[in-house]
Sequence to fold (287 residues):
Amino acid sequence: MKATNPEIRDRYAAEGCAFPIPVLSRSEAAAYRARLEETERRLGDERPFPYLKPYLALTLVNELVRLPAVLDVVEGIIGPDILVWDGALIVKEPHTSGRFTWHQDLTYWGLSPKEGVVSTWLALSPSTPESGCVKVIPGTHTEEILPHRDTFGDDNMLSRGQEIAADIDESLAVDVALEPGQMSIHHPHLFHRSAPNRSGDRRIGMNVQYIAPYVKQVVGRSDSAMPVRGRDGHGNFEVETPPVADFAPESMAQLDAVNERRREYLFQGVESRRSRVYDEHVGRCPT
Fold:
């Protein structure tokens, strides 16, 4: 499937998702994975690895969120003016219990309107049913946001351990299996989850939320995003700046400030627990 193929837009409109979309060759994906893992090794225990909003700290991730093949697909969904609002390097280690329960992304993000928001998922290692690939229920993007319950489960990799508080018909679920270099896109209302990694390899993916500049943060007092294509004629978000070098002091200061502000809307209603929960999850999972 070519990134410019209208079938991507048609499938997204009908099912709330589209995959697999090739954006990198296998060798390019392997090179990005090698750079990431070398950075992890180099950092060691010196500081927490920035798995959340890593494009503000790591030049290699800043490259990934700006890939023309990715932005071409995003442009077909939300238009030519594009901001990166959030992102996460999602790593499930081999033979571990970490999982994502059934949820809808936009539940706690505070972004409106939904038509200006899209999520991408780029595989840097094989994402298979065995390794805990994403599962979706096509067509559920037409649902409104359903009630969610917070579990704060130890093996739940979501920020609040949130899950849809309703029975889900698992027979309708589809595996979003991806080879390294392939991408999926999904709507922020789509029902989706992923199981633990039972394989012998790490499952590594880059999850990014792109927004159109007309989108607003309607829960938090302020928010920020990074322009990556076109222009921002609305000014609804403070402008984030890309890193000039890995872990540059000014970049890390920006990342710390952004993550602190992020607490406000992600943990609304759980004030008494939010700092502990967020600090436990920061550096290892998306929202």
Observations:
- The first helix runs from residue 6 to 15.
